Amino acid sequence: MPTYHYRCKNCNYDFTEQQSFTDDPITVCPKCGEEQVRKVYSAVPIEFKGSGFYRTDGASHSK
């Protein structure tokens, strides 16, 4: 199951929760009880493996 990062806009409480894709997002803060929780989105790191991603891979550069 995926893990989602949440933050409360009221008290700034950060927490993570494992949820199914079909579960509704959490909206109530478990710390302060306010309905101010939003998902926090961040960039996903990309890792290039194998050949073909660099200038020097596989091609002859003679002119």
From TrEMBL:
Q: Which residues form the Putative regulatory protein FmdB zinc ribbon domain?
A: 1-42
Xref: InterPro entries: Regulatory_FmdB_Zinc_ribbon (IPR013429)
Name the residues that span the membrane. none
**Superkingdom per UniProt:** Bacteria
**By what name is this protein known?**
Zinc ribbon domain-containing protein
Tell me which species this is from: Bifidobacterium miconis
Q: What is the lineage of its organism?
A: Bacteria, Bacillati, Actinomycetota, Actinomycetes, Bifidobacteriales
